[in-house]
Design goal:
By secondary structure, the chain is an alpha/beta fold. The chain has 13 helices and ten strands. A hairpin with an 8-residue loop joins strand 7 (165-168) and strand 8 (177-180). The relative contact order is 0.14.
Length: 330
């Protein structure tokens, strides 16, 4: 199997270096691969890529990266609490959402897949795709306002956030299997969802475009080594899960005292913020994520038609009382 004396082995169209103790032509098992990336250099590379994307697309990129890192622990988050949020990436058609996700973020997982069209998805296709990988994001595009009327799409999106299980097979043949959605979803669109139930199951980031082509091209080149960098980083981060849980608890306790938003939304933002806080500590991140959470909550209130109607009814009742003429007994 060895490609040359330097210990490289072909895997598909690529070549990988074998670990030094695996360079034996007579091994009868799958060999161990080494990516030769120092964990310190790998972490510096990822930090540089994140900093560049924030400069290119604004502070919303930091929220996206926090989600892309936290999804590595999606299975653990679902075991801890029965939900892991979707990621909504919002921006105009020419903002570069596809380039941000496909050419940069997904490279962390060694992928450069084109987005799947959400309106064309079927329920079976949706579950097959979301079960094809584990703790690696599935990229869906073309989320639009009219999606709220597509019951199948909305239920699939909500079910993914809830870690729902689908029964497949034939009940009369006693061959029924439960299929969970093992992949988290990143969804792009030009507008936020107006469905409060879906909004409470997601974190959102708004991208703005910085026309810095040289920086974008340099960042894409840096991403060539991202998939190699993530291997030593995962090994280094293996014992960080308890710290992430504790950090989530601290953030939730603080944010609940400072905002009246739905606890599920607070928990979603706390999970992704806690993950990035442990991996890349930053004292100011807590406030940035809280501001993003409060702005999202404000948008949800503004798009909540029922809340608007109730508020209007209260106003009308008060106005009616103000203008009812008093009746005096003669």
């Amino acid at each position: 199997l060895l490609d040359d004396k330097m210990g490289f082995i072909p895997v598909g169209p690529l070549k990988y270096r074998l670990a030094s103790n695996e360079r034996d032509e007579h091994i009868k098992r799958a060999p161990s691969l080494t990516f030769g990336v120092d964990p310190v250099k790998a972490k510096a590379l990822l930090r540089k890529v994140i900093a560049n994307t924030i400069e290119l697309w604004g502070p919303g990129a930091e929220i996206a990266w926090a989600w892309f890192l936290s999804i590595l622990w999606r299975s653990k988050w679902l075991d801890e609490t029965p939900q892991f949020p979707l990621l909504f990436v919002i921006g105009n058609a020419s903002i570069g959402k596809t380039e941000f996700i496909k050419s940069i973020c997904l490279r962390l997982y060694g992928m450069t897949l084109d987005p799947l069209s959400l309106p064309k998805m079927t329920e079976v296709g949706f579950y097959n795709l979301s079960n094809s990988m584990c703790n690696i994001p599935l990229y869906l595009d073309e989320f639009k306002g009219e999606m709220i009327d597509n019951k199948m799409v909305m239920e699939c999106l909500k079910g993914n956030a809830d870690g729902s299980v689908k029964l497949v097979g034939s009940t009369d043949q006693f061959d029924v299997k439960s299929r969970s959605q093992r992949s988290g979803l990143v969804v792009t669109g030009e507008t936020r969802t107006t469905d409060n139930a879906l909004s409470s199951r997601s974190v959102s980031c708004d991208l703005v475009k910085n026309e810095n082509t040289p920086l974008f091209e340099a960042t894409v080149r840096l991403c060539d080594d991202l998939s190699c960098a993530i291997v030593p980083l995962i090994q280094q981060w293996a014992d960080l899960w308890p710290l992430m849980k504790d950090r989530r608890t601290v953030l939730m306790r603080d944010w609940k005292t400072r905002t009246k938003l739905d606890s599920r939304q607070i928990q979603n933002y706390a999970k992704v913020c806690a993950t990035m806080d442990v991996v890349f500590p930053d004292e100011g991140r807590k406030e940035r994520f809280l501001n993003a959470l409060m702005n999202k909550g404000k948008d949800s209130e503004e798009t909540n038609i029922l809340a608007k109607m109730i508020a209007l009814l209260l106003f009308l009742v008060q106005a009616r009382r103000a203008f009812i003429p008093c009746k005096y007994n003669s």
